[in-house]
């Protein structure tokens, strides 16, 4: 029982995890498991020690709350950052894809234009040397003179 460690030392009392040390009257009492925080009738939070003797229960609660708050803030920031980065990378990928499609279409149009220019040039050369066939009858025979 925790009461057996009363009037001894805080370290002896807190070796048992279910015990609470109160500095006001140097007593070791059972930790009130039914309520999360010990009531002020048992011992004030600033004089209560649980787990370790060098920090009071009030400071322990504040420290745990701060650590839990920092962890929640860090998780929230990480989630928001990851969502922002994903959205940003997706939009960047979409922009790059659109840009590549535009360049591909431009190259295709330039290729068609060059092909048309080559055809016109070749037709001029064929016309010059009389090799251009009649477009009305492309399957006519060559005349031997």
Automatic annotation (TrEMBL):
This is PTTG protein. Keywords: Coiled coil, Membrane, Transmembrane, Transmembrane helix. One of its GO terms (biological process) is protein import into nucleus. Residues 86-122 form a coiled coil. It comes from the Eukaryota. The chain crosses the membrane at residues 59-84. GO terms for cellular component: cytoplasm; nucleus. It comes from Dicrurus megarhynchus. InterPro entries: PTTG1IP.
């Amino acid at each position: 029982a925790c009461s057996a460690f009363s009037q001894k030392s805080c370290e002896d009392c807190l070796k048992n995890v279910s015990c609470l040390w109160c500095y006001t009257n140097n007593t070791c009492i059972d930790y009130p498991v039914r309520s999360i925080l010990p009531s002020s009738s048992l011992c004030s939070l600033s004089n209560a020690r649980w787990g370790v003797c060098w920090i009071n229960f009030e400071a322990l609660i504040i420290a745990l709350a701060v650590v839990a708050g920092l962890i929640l803030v860090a998780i929230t920031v990480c989630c928001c950052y990851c969502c922002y980065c994903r959205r940003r990378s997706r939009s960047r990928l979409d922009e790059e894809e659109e840009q590549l499609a535009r360049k591909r279409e431009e190259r295709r149009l330039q290729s068609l234009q060059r092909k048309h220019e080559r055809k016109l040039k070749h037709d001029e050369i064929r016309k010059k040397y009389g090799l251009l066939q009649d477009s009305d009858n492309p399957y006519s025979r060559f005349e031997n003179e």
